[in-house]
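Recall that a protein's primary structure is simply its ordered list of amino acids. Everything else, from secondary elements to tertiary packing, is in principle encoded there. The following example makes that idea concrete.
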Amino acid sequence: MKQRSDCGDTVQYDAGAVAWTWLSGRASAIPYTVLFVAAFANATAERKRAPAVAPFELCYDSRELGSTRLGYAVPQVDLVMEGGGGNWTVFGGNSMVQVDDNTACFGFLEMKEGRYGHGGGEAPAVVIGGFQMENNLLVFDDEKGQLGFSGLLFGRQTTCSNFNFTLAA
């Protein structure tokens, strides 16, 4: 990944700044994506905030967010891949976590000391979490170090639970 665009704010990264948890053998052991969340906070400054619910820092009154078939009507997060590989757009269905009846939190955690990937030295800019991978078809090519992705399946009016993964190709 070379950059991330949250609501029109683009954050550039050096090559190799992203840690794909599958490369380290942890698959989806990290529940929520870890990155720098300031751009989303700025883009949603007009939204009614709710008290933070750990481990999240940005929480909102979910009754005020609006809804689409792709989840809550919130700014999208675009993860732009290196080498013209396209971008992975994260919509409200994978960016907002419903924590109680009236509260939804931005399901990305701030990259800071003590969190996965941050060892006090050079940390990856982004660690993709399992929540953001849900209802996306992902193909990991360990040999080439590549990731293929479908994007959120809600946009195709389906979910991963509709697939039978036990059939041979």
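The longest strand covers residues 146-152. The domain at 3-135 is CATH 2.40.70.10 (Cathepsin D, subunit A; domain 1).
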